[in-house]
Amino acid sequence: MKTVFLGTAWESLETLKVLHNDPNFEVVCVITTPDKPVGRKQVMTPSDVKKYAIENSIPVVHTEGKTENYIKVLKKYDPEIVVCKAFGEIVPKEFLEYPKYGCINIHFSILPKYRGAVPIQKAILEGEKETGISIMLMSEGLDEGDVLEIFREEIREDDTNITLRERLVKKSTEVLIPTLLKWVNGKIEAKSQKNEDATYCWQKDISKEKAEILWNEYTPEYIARMVRAFVPWPIAWSVIKGDVRKSILGKRIKIYKGALIEYSSEKDPGDLIIDKNILLFATRDPLACLKLQEYQIEGKRIVKENVII
After folding, report:
1. Last residue of a domain, one of 155, 179, 201
2. How far apart are CA 143 and CA 133, in angstroms?
3. Where does a domain end: 151, 176, 201?
4. CA-wise closest residue to 114 among 105, 104, 124
5. Angle between the 48-55 and 10-20 helix axes, to the nearest 10 degrees?
6. Which residue from 109, 89, 126 is spatially nearest to 198, judged by alpha carbons?
7. Which range of residues forms the domain containing residue 250?
8. What total of structural domains would you count in the chain?
9. Is pTM, for the whole model, over 0.90?
10. What is the pLDDT of residues 183-202, one digit of tens each?
């Protein structure tokens, strides 16, 4: 089948690889976002998907969100199926309706729950016990298309955005091809979503402002989930207060890894406690503290636990 692939990020790359290496699919074109400036020197850098495509002699197109550019792809490559993962552009209706077998999207949630941009982070933040992979038909609405298959995945107590995402990416590469083959062979009936059950998550839900820990407002459990959900970006953070050295008082601290522990404290919520070589934050529960396992104080390098500051 002549296949056009849409994607940008590293997780998209893993999807492209399985398509490219499967004899049932001929990836005739890749659509990805334009090169972006990266690093202090702002060097123009292609996406991981573009790098792979060039290395494997797959044509690359930058549509830049323009309908006319999508139409050109259809006329030139005449795809029978389109597969999308973590692309980052709104795809026009004309493109969605063209392929014989439709445009297929891989979404990391159990639809219709957590439609939108950050379903993994949102599932962790909300304390969900499971998430999943929804393989679905793309539509004009945000993740509203009919669903072909859903594959469920447990959210472990120590899962972070990184560990859970890596597991979902791996699992999606294992289930994608069998699902697509069943679909094109008429062995799957696409099922519509119940819009009344839909919930949404947006990029703004994990903004730097949202990553500030509000010690008096949030439960200790929610704070621990923030730490796990906000890696590798934007990283949960707070401002240091309490009975600490003046050199760090008032400075911002980013928390890359932490764990709730039983620790009796009469300190105010958000006070930093230094107990020998252990750093903890008091919470609104006088019997629970957040132990810091990996952190970075403003202007300093990232350090791990058992380092005295």
Report:
1. 201
2. 12
3. 201
4. 124
5. 30
6. 109
7. 207-304
8. 2
9. yes
10. 999 999 999 999 999 999 99
